[in-house]
Amino acid sequence: MVVLKKMNASTLMETLIATVLVMVIFMVASLILNNMFSNSIKNNRRAITSKINAIEYLYINDKITLPYQDDYEDWMITMEPLKNTSKIGLKATNEVTGKTIEKIFYKR
């Protein structure tokens, strides 16, 4: 006949404490991930950067003239010559967040 060995089991209080610790760790991890994802979505500037590059390309190829203004989604884009220089300033301002992107390039 097989002799059954007595196993030490954890108490109910130890099990509850371990469960609470696992839940707290899961909660903190989910808050960190949520914050990272929301920041990456909020700071996504690929679309406006692409639009700025397209406007620069059109200006270089004489398809648009200065001064230039355009609305693109929440962004107000302006392009004008800088004073006393041979440079062109292109500025995009987000009307919701107030963030700006500036680009300077030389005239042809």
UniProtKB/TrEMBL annotation:
Q: Any stretches that span the bilayer, and where are they?
A: 16-37
Question: Which controlled-vocabulary keywords does the entry list?
Answer: Membrane, Transmembrane, Transmembrane helix
Instruction: State the protein's name.
Output: Type II secretion system protein
Q: Which domain of life, per UniProt?
A: Bacteria
Question: Which organism is the protein's source?
Answer: Winogradskyella flava
